[in-house]
Amino acid sequence: MPLINRLAIIGVGLIGGSLARILREKGEVGEVVGIGRGKANLERAVELGVIDRYAHDPAEGVSGADMVFLATPVCTIADIVKTIAPSLSPGCIITDGGSVKGDIVRACEPLVPAGCHFVGGHPIAGTENSGVEASFATLYQGRRCIITPTEHTDRGALDKVVRMWQLAGSNVVQMDVEKHDRVVAAISHLPHMVAYSLVNAVGEYDGCDENILKYSAGGFRDFTRIASSDPVMWRDIALQNRDSILEMMDLFADYYARLRALVACGDGAAIERFFASSKEHRDGIVNQAALPSVKEES
Ligand SMILES: NC(=O)c1ccc[n+]([C@@H]2O[C@H](COP(=O)([O-])OP(=O)(O)OC[C@H]3O[C@@H](n4cnc5c(N)ncnc54)[C@H](O)[C@@H]3O)[C@@H](O)[C@H]2O)c1
Ligand SMILES: O=C(O)C(=O)C[C@]1(C(=O)O)C=C[C@@H](O)C=C1
């Protein structure tokens, strides 16, 4: 018997489409209903075999679903939960893949009717590409997924959401929403803020009488891949995780100013120490041991 009988996915893009693909491939879902606004993307999702059918009306689409997965930009999620709440079937679990958790979990938990359950989640996996065409079944393989239960979370619903992500290949970690938002501000949101700024700074630099981006090689391309990510998704993340992002941008500005001062005064030994310490941290992530399959953190 599959884990999920009818899965409704609201927002059939990279994240929603990839989850549907892997659960279907594993035979862990009976039927997948896609819900979204754009007809072309949803028709393409049917053609690709990612969903069985689709609806434009979220209330109609979630009818009869035992699991609803929200994978739209973070600022839309609470409003969608408010819209679908009256149409949820008894026992339905609503979960999401949004990149920020505090606002979403605080807003959505009270919106869900008695007998239904909300569980916040965030797969730490993605690419700079969007839409169902960009989705693929192995996206979550070996990657972390953070689940953010609260004191109100139903244990059975939590177990089912954890199981769903394990079946998708993820290493599931549990964390409170505040810690989640600070962790991702550091390891995901700050790098995006830096990459977007770097590309604008270099792309708009006019000191060489030509657009110098055409000379970009491995270093610039590797560093800035994520600046090709969807501006709407990242606008919403910047708005919703404002405080934690500002804290990390300020921390980064301190380190950047420190390096600038070392370069300005030509202190070679100190510059080398700065780079050596960074190399040590970075080599540590690249060489890190295989992730444990299930880990609980609070
Ligand atoms: N892209 C990543 O790397 C990544 C990783 C982890 C989590 N996330 C989170 O997952 C969510 C989805 O991101 P994605 O990369 O799959 O985006 P995407 O653009 O590939 O897919 C989102 C889909 O939602 C649809 N949509 C937007 N607003 C809608 C609304 N109000 N109602 C119904 N459908 C709507 C879009 O048309 C699109 O089809 C976001 O919350 C994002 O923060 C993204
Ligand atoms: O690899 C990428 O392109 C990503 O941006 C994925 C990434 C990340 O920063 O690592 C981006 C946003 C998410 O919420 C989770 C993962």
UniProtKB/TrEMBL annotation:
Pathway: Amino-acid biosynthesis; L-tyrosine biosynthesis; (4-hydroxyphenyl)pyruvate from prephenate (NAD(+) route): step 1/1. GO terms for biological process: tyrosine biosynthetic process. Its EC number is 1.3.1.12. The keyword Oxidoreductase applies. InterPro entries: 6-PGluconate_DH-like_C_sf, NAD(P)-bd_dom_sf, PDH_C, PDH_N, Preph/Arog_dehydrog, Prephen_DH. Belongs to the prephenate/arogenate dehydrogenase family. This is prephenate dehydrogenase. It comes from Geoanaerobacter pelophilus.
